[in-house]
Structure prediction request, 93 residues.
Amino acid sequence: TINLINNFKSSIGLQEVKTKGTFAALSGKTDTEIFPDYRNVSVLSSYRLLNINDVQWALMSEIDESEAFAPIEQLKTRMFIMIATFLFAIVGI
Prediction:
């Protein structure tokens, strides 16, 4: 399989992906969820069934959960620092 992927420079149709999202998409569901991907890494995934010429495909778009929510974590950290700074300044005054 690895040789075929290297030869075709693509994994489309060659690499099997068995995740909660692929099974749900192939059963006709459309959703966005967080679950482990084929690497066992938590991902934010949107999926749906895609029928082209009577062939069923699972269309999936995924991003690692840590990457997807990094801006929110940064905002929480900055807000905590701001609030702590204001409280320290108020108590100091």
